[in-house]
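USER: Write out one fold?

ASSISTANT:
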Amino acid sequence: MRAKRDSCLPISGLEPIEQEQWSVSNLMKDRVATTEKGFICLICGSSVVHEASMRRHLSDIHLHSHLRYRCPLCKKIYKNKNSLANHLYSYHKDVKGLDINKCICR
């Protein structure tokens, strides 16, 4: 179901939204089309089956793509929170209480 595009350039015809209104919830309302097979991002054309996947796409690609996340244990850098969470689960299962939100590096 996932449709890949070469870039995340805006699709023409969308009205701009003010930066202070940028949030996953607002983007879900204003920049996502619902179809019988899932969800389509009206910003870049990506499609996914599940709403949670679309929310993650909006957050990782359109809201927080400039952020990187560093593992506090081995110092590897990841492009999004989900990638860091998967790394922590796979390689550092025994360590408890890590706050991914404090792992942001710019």
Observations:
- The first strand starts at residue 32 and ends at 35.
- The chain has two domains: 1-65, 68-105.
- The chain has a mean pLDDT of 82.
